[in-house]
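EI: anyone free to look at a 342-residue chain?
SC: sure, send it
EI:
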Amino acid sequence: MEVLPELTAASTNSVLTSAVNTLAVTLLSGGPVARTVSLSSAWESYSLALTSLRDELRSASGSPSRPSEIIGAIMCLLLSEIHLNTNLRSWTAHLEGFAQSVRLAGPQLFSSGVPHKLFVGACPLLVSFKRLGDITQLLVAHAGYWPQVVLSFFIRKKSFLDSDEWRRVPFAEVPPSLFHQLFGKALAIPTILEKIEEAATAPRESAVSTAEDSVRQLIAVLDALELWKDDFQGREASPPVFGGVVAERGSREWPPLWFQSITDCNAASHFWAFRAICLATIDQLDAEYPEIAFDRQRLATRMAAGSVFEEMRQLSTWICQCVGMAILSLTFPYPQTALKEE
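SC: here you go
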């Protein structure tokens, strides 16, 4: 959102203006504060903006002359859809179209300035999850580097971001922050999931070999995530981020988790989700192919809860405990920091 004033100030694009207005109307139509505009007005504005965007893309044959403005407009509409509670299938379809717009624009566009900021805000959605359906819907509320990260988990396909060109060029002038480095670590996961899907119909011997290789790669991702966590946690004057509070077994009380900033909240919830996906996938492969060879004991020692089931329960609980702060960050998008418990 911070780039919208700069983006709109230099634009005469009616599509972008319509999309920004839609986002504003949508935000005003809901939330814990008294509504200042009706929900029907928000839907009307969204419908008009979506039609305007489709007409623009058709007239430009899918390649608009000012792609950063179109990408900004699509991001506004994706955020509006979250607030309007559109169905997940429709939202995912629009997200795929958004990913295509980013890919066609090429990595060089996003190396600096407003386009780079848009890219940083979009990439995480372009890296997310089909595997943990309920967790996915919670994380969809955290729109950040992440529209292609989210999408590639949904469809279990390798992301175009998982290539040397897309990893390198957009960050040639502005290095990625620690938070965005997290998604760089996670980009390997959809690629592994795609390989597992393809092996499901292969002969047993080939499937076992793929499963064994995939487990080794997932363990390598877990190692990379742990190293990232140490770097993130080691920031100067940074309070602990990754130690949640787990409810007692059978308890209905899940005390909310609060962080120094929404960035810390996003970092923790995504780290836990990526870890959960890796562990769940390893556990599934181990159950389907018990003959695969890997150090099960070494993996078990990395799980504080002692088993995959208990570790998944703990990670899922922590993610759910982040929801309160995530919702507040959407309802009150400014400022992005200092959402603290009084």
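EI: Strands lie at 124-126.
SC: 👍
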